[in-house]
Amino acid sequence: MTISVLLVDDQALLRAGFRALLSRAKTLAVVGEAASGEEAVSQAVQLRPDVVLMDIRMPGMNGIDATRHILRRLPATKVIILTTFDTDENVFDALRAGASGFLTKEVDLAELRRAVEVVAAGEALLSPSVTRRVVERFAHRPRPAASLHALTTRESEVVRLVATGLSNDEIAAALVISPLTVKTHITRAITKLGVRDRVQLVILAYEHGLVSSSPTDT
């Protein structure tokens, strides 16, 4: 099965670079390009891509607003944010808008292909280190923790481990349970907390203090 991808970036050279990378992966196909947020929304509605690779900083409508508009109309479409990370302080807001994860613009073919395939399959793209750093850096607005009371002790434990960047297999090994059981706990937590996906589950965990930042994390 071929995964359709829409490229969104105001720099033609970067779009060309990503198109070249994607063309080398037999399972991925670029179905369109957009140079602005407005064009991204229009192209997405017309083409209905499986995955959108979305730049944040563009003239006119930015990538965050474009992500909101696209996901409101096409909830099955997944958005991956393209960022330079250290210089882009809007990544957190993009994840809050519903993006399934993010990539740096220096991504290589193997990482790009894996990222697109992961989010197309319905999973969130969570780097064990980079996503944690983003959440820790930008989640400065704590909310009342009442919603976390809906979780069981084991569900809270699983969510905490998810937020530290562990995969389902790693969580299963740590808790001595099966990966399927881990997935079930995550699914139930997502449903109880009313969040979109694994990324927003991580954000919520940090916002509510279920996981705290550590100066030793990199």
UniProtKB/TrEMBL annotation:
GO BP term (any one): phosphorelay signal transduction system
InterPro entries: CheY-like_superfamily, NreC/VraR/RcsB-like_REC, Sig_transdc_resp-reg_C-effctor, Sig_transdc_resp-reg_receiver, Tscrpt_reg_LuxR_C, WalR-like
Ranges of residues in domain Response regulatory: 4-120
GO terms for MF: DNA binding
Superkingdom in the source lineage: Bacteria
Keywords carried by this UniProt record: DNA-binding, Phosphoprotein, Transcription, Transcription regulation
CDD domains according to UniProt: LuxR_C_like, REC_NarL-like
PTM-bearing positions, type 4-aspartylphosphate: D55
Domain HTH luxR-type, chain residue ranges per copy: 144-209
Pfam families per UniProt: GerE (PF00196), Response_reg (PF00072)
Protein name, UniProt field: DNA-binding response regulator, NarL/FixJ family, contains REC and HTH domains
Organism, as annotated: Nonomuraea wenchangensis
Lineage: Bacteria, Bacillati, Actinomycetota, Actinomycetes, Streptosporangiales
